[in-house]
Design a protein that fits this description.
homotetramer; 257 residues; globular
């Protein structure tokens, strides 16, 4: 049976600040990316979120980001590969400790925000991150943008890798995302977005922005749980996938380990 | 053979800021407490310090503290036991990740600064910390002030515990430290300080501030490596201990595991 | 005409995190306390909040707190009076800069959360804070809990002071707040809360928890704007005050400068 | 008489961490740039440094940087012009408060590290910063790299501007600095470095890396005080300037206000 993972960022609250509707989205997804205290979250939030994910049977991922709480890790920072690697190790270990303390496991690592985007285009940075993951635990899955340098780096050093796709983004003929600044970057029709995902899963194909079909092999689709509209979309994509006979499963059931 | 551990705080540099003379003190000690990024240190410093400790064969301990970089974790903070426990788990995991990535192990956990002092007097806080350590790894040694609530909590929940003593501090008849605000709190004569440590190790006794002898069983002596005077003292205490036939060994060789 | 100020904490959002319903509460209040980046807020939020308060004609106050973003400044920290004073100066200046850049003025300073509570009971701390305010600008009003050490310190060094009262809190016979841990600490009946405020304003009296009447002279009532219930209460207290012929005015129209 | 300012970064210590030899360099310089708590420093350090600069009669400048303590503000961050402007206002106000509280004044603003470098090349960013300075106080001098976008932006909006030069850096024919990655970027011979500065001051000329003479009008030379070698160099350049009859004076005596 064709299968796909639905992943969502969780555990982004911080101290007195609440973000996201974690309780409502968690029954709808198969894997979650939990913030690790650098761009968002704190130890109490991490503990609570790991407990919630364990309870829901959702694959638990670390979501390490830049040390930029004020910018929510969304601003590019000119860190060296060594710095990025050390930040990954630190945050990965911190989340791991909550998982281990609750007798559960980490499934994957997905760099967050600007770090994800930068690593996707910078092989040296991607390699440093992939090595940091491998050095800590070579059985962890590294999630990266399909077609990105992150995926290439993970494959090269031989750790399991999950190729992430976006339902609402258009693709260039080379498989990279159309930059948000370009016309047509966003797929605004939700039904079309869902149809594109289904085709990716079933046919490993998507129509690029120039009209040509390109190959894409999706392991996970990124969804959001921070507003009502997003929750509705997750419900719809779930139903559509199930109606097509596509299974929704955590990465550990999809990616070759 | 009588044995004692000499422990020292290491890895307290942060970003562009250097603190301590880690390279010089590390050959003189048997265990180190490595800061974990809350009161001091950062991921690059943690990586470097773990590597240095592994190379030197020194027992590696996590030194988690309050999230108070500006105050170096030295100011009491009214955190709840739940908050303290989560801060311990977070920092412990972060340091663990560097150790695991370098194929080495953590030996112990020693709460830092104000957290250490508060836990020493507050059983609920001490218990929350001890449980956090046990939940993560019940074979880790928790280091606490000899005679403190931290030691009592660790014993009660059944994790290995190291009783720490101070060469330069006077003791109350009940085994607690004479508060710094009291006359006679500090042992300023270094030879006397060393003689007191030797007696603690050999006879399990120390003369309290009221002149009576009290029982004290030391597993580790706290030393410092942040200035020349401190380094000289460590060299002297080492020589004196060795001259008395007392072995200097990491906690893992001293504490019943 | 009898007058009273209604003050509310504003500008507590931070980065990607939203807190409070500032736009909705601002038309209902006469003074606001704007967070200054230590326990909450960031420079963009400060700029926006000052602009909003200026536009609404609301008295602008600095709301400096402890450097504890993770705990929202609500946890006691054992800072020295010198540290507290420097934290006040720093945050006060930061907010002042936004006000000055927009051609408006600061009206008052209200320490936040745990710092407010600690200063209310610790004269040395209160004095250090009051001096920091005076050194920066002796015409700024310091807001403190009615009957507290903060008010005493401000009076002693001769800066304008605003005595804050709480509608929903019971008072001890000595004019201090009944601790939250005691039975009867909270006035849960909103109508009674409003009646008590009206009596404070008109008669300078409130019934203490032991049934005796005590004197209390209120300059400002603390209200909240972070949930629907709180907003409803502010609307109600406004109407009740106006119905009683009590004017609602910013501190600068109430406190002798 | 020809005059030049010697400026140095001061007040970069943080909490328990000491950086720089402020006491020793301060008698040798005429202006200082004081860190404002984002990339370095804290309120106690700011207070102490402002007091020291006032006592020494040195021109006091704010040295606002990126919110990146871990990276000491040296890493480029993709902040928006609005964010940069707000960060400048915040830090400028914070330092101003210490100066005002001690009855002294701010003379100038010099963005720090990566923010300085980025603004030097990005006119939009430079303009946002210059406007933030002007909005707060149009009499403050903005210090920028000679020939940079920062200088251009300050001139365009009509605030006083100080053109900074570097003794130890080579220049491109267009007046920009030779990138550090290029051969010949650094002037390693200290005597040559000093001769170049003297020629800049006296003749408004320097030999660019291609051997041609270019015009450069220096208002201030950047010096360092964080190691013995740097201190020796400041002493030497002072003597050489004085021997040439060049006055050393704070920016406020040099720049047209």
């Amino acid at each position: 049976m064709a299968k796909i993972d639905l992943n969502c960022d969780l555990g982004e609250s911080f101290g007195a600040y609440t973000m996201g509707m974690d309780e409502r989205v968690i029954p709808l997804i198969s894997s979650c990316n939990i913030a690790c205290g650098y761009h968002a979250s704190d130890p109490l939030v991490m503990r609570k979120t790991v407990a919630m994910a364990k309870e829901a049977g959702v694959g638990i991922g670390a979501h390490p980001g830049f040390p930029d709480l004020m910018g929510f890790g969304r601003r590019n920072m000119a860190v060296s590969p060594e710095e990025a690697a050390a930040y990954i190790t630190y945050q990965l270990g911190a989340l791991y400790a909550f998982a281990k303390s609750m007798h559960t496991k980490l499934q994957h690592v997905k760099p967050h925000g600007a770090l994800y985007n930068m690593a996707g285009k910078d092989y040296k940075l991607a390699l440093a991150i992939a090595k940091a993951v491998k050095d800590f635990d070579p059985s962890l899955i590294l999630m990266g943008l399909s077609g990105s340098e992150s995926v290439r780096a993970a494959e090269e050093i031989g750790i399991p890798v999950a190729r992430e796709v976006f339902a609402d983004r258009a693709y260039m003929p080379d498989g990279s995302l159309v930059p948000r600044s370009m016309e047509g970057a966003m797929i605004r029709d939700e039904n079309e977005a869902i149809r594109r995902v289904i085709r990716m899963v079933k046919e490993h194909k998507v129509t690029a922005i120039d009209g040509t079909d390109i190959e894409i092999v999706p392991d996970s689709v990124c969804v959001h749980g921070d507003n009502e509209k997003a929750l509705t979309f997750v419900t719809q994509i779930r139903s559509a996938l199930e109606a097509e006979g596509i299974g929704i499963a955590p990465l550990s059931k999809i990616v070759a380990l």
